[in-house]
C-alpha cells in the first residue's frame, strides 16, 4: 500500500511561499515608499523655492487709511508707498521753533506730531515702542527751593510687520519746586526726546531733514500733495 501523502508538507510549503511573498512585498514596497516620500519632499521644496526667491525681492508697502485699510493714493491716483512718504518733508503744521545756541532758531517736531506721523505712515498697530532704559543723571536743589532734575532714556521703535527697528537716546530736564514733579517731568521729557531721535532714522518725514543745515522752514510743504510734488521734483520724476 502506498503511503498517504501528508497534508503537512503542502501546508508548510504554502506558508513558506506566503512568507517569501510578504518579505518580497516588504522589500519592494519599502524603498519604493521611501523614494516616493523623497520625491514628495523634493516637489514641495521646488514649490517653495520660487516663493522664497520672490520674498527676497522688495515688495513695496503702502500707506493705508486707518478706517478701512484701503491704500492711499497721491493726487495723480498713484498708490502711495511707505518709502515714498517717508522721503517727503514734514508738513509746516508739524514743525515748531525755539531759540537755540548762538542766537539761532531751531526747528523741531513736537512729540505728538512724531507719534501722529508714525501712526499715519505705519498704522496704529504697525509699530511698537520699547523703553529700554531710563536713568537719572542729575538731581540737585537750586537756591534751597527749586529742584533741577535731568534724565536720559534709551528707546527702540520696531515695525511689527518686518521687525525693523530704530533706537536712540534722549535727554530731558525739569525744574520745579516739588521734587516728585521735577522727576516726573524730566523722565517724560527724556522719553519723548528719545522717541523723536529714534523716529528720525526712518526718514525725512519724521524729522531727519531737520538736522540738515540747508533746511528752510519757509519751504516746508503745507499739505501731503505739496510734499509729494516737492519730492518728485527732487527725484526728477
Automatic annotation (TrEMBL):
<dbReference type="Pfam" id="PF04098">
    <property type="entry name" value="Rad52_Rad22"/>
</dbReference>
<keyword id="KW-0732">Signal</keyword>
<feature type="signal peptide">
    <location>
        <begin position="1"/>
        <end position="25"/>
    </location>
</feature>
<dbReference type="InterPro" id="IPR042525">
    <property type="entry name" value="Rad52_Rad59_Rad22_sf"/>
</dbReference>
<protein>
    <submittedName>
        <fullName>And recombination protein RAD52</fullName>
    </submittedName>
</protein>
<dbReference type="GO" id="GO:0045002">
    <property type="term" value="P:double-strand break repair via single-strand annealing"/>
</dbReference>
<dbReference type="InterPro" id="IPR007232">
    <property type="entry name" value="Rad52_Rad59_Rad22"/>
</dbReference>
<dbReference type="GO" id="GO:0006312">
    <property type="term" value="P:mitotic recombination"/>
</dbReference>
<dbReference type="GO" id="GO:0000724">
    <property type="term" value="P:double-strand break repair via homologous recombination"/>
</dbReference>
<keyword id="KW-0234">DNA repair</keyword>
<dbReference type="GO" id="GO:0005634">
    <property type="term" value="C:nucleus"/>
</dbReference>
<keyword id="KW-0227">DNA damage</keyword>
<comment type="similarity">
    <text>Belongs to the RAD52 family.</text>
</comment>
<keyword id="KW-0233">DNA recombination</keyword>
<dbReference type="InterPro" id="IPR041247">
    <property type="entry name" value="Rad52_fam"/>
</dbReference>
Amino acid at each position: 500500500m502506498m503511503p498517504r501523502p501528508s497534508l503537512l508538507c503542502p501546508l508548510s510549503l504554502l506558508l513558506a511561499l506566503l512568507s517569501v511573498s510578504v518579505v518580497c512585498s516588504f522589500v519592494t514596497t519599502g524603498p519604493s515608499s521611501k523614494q516616493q516620500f523623497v520625491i514628495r519632499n523634493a516637489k514641495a521644496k521646488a514649490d517653495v523655492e520660487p516663493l522664497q526667491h520672490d520674498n527676497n525681492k522688495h515688495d513695496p508697502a503702502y500707506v493705508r487709511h486707518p478706517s478701512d485699510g484701503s491704500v492711499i493714493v497721491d493726487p495723480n491716483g498713484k498708490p502711495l508707498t511707505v518709502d515714498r512718504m517717508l522721503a517727503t518733508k514734514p508738513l509746516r503744521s508739524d514743525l515748531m521753533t525755539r531759540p537755540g545756541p548762538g542766537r539761532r532758531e531751531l526747528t523741531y517736531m513736537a512729540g505728538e506730531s512724531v507719534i501722529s506721523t508714525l501712526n499715519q505712515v505705519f498704522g496704529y498697530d504697525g509699530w511698537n515702542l520699547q523703553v529700554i532704559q531710563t536713568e537719572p543723571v542729575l538731581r540737585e536743589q537750586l537756591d534751597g527751593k527749586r529742584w533741577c532734575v535731568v534724565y536720559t532714556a534709551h528707546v527702540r521703535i520696531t515695525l511689527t510687520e518686518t521687525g525693523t527697528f530704530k533706537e536712540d537716546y534722549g535727554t530731558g530736564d525739569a525744574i520745579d519746586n516739588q521734587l516728585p514733579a521735577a522727576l516726573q517731568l524730566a523722565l517724560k521729557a527724556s522719553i519723548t526726546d528719545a522717541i523723536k531721535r529714534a523716529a528720525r532714522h526712518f526718514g525725512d518725514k519724521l524729522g531727519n531733514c531737520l538736522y540738515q543745515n540747508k533746511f528752510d522752514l519757509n519751504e516746508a510743504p503745507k499739505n501731503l500733495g505739496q510734499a509729494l510734488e516737492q519730492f518728485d521734483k527732487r527725484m526728477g520724476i
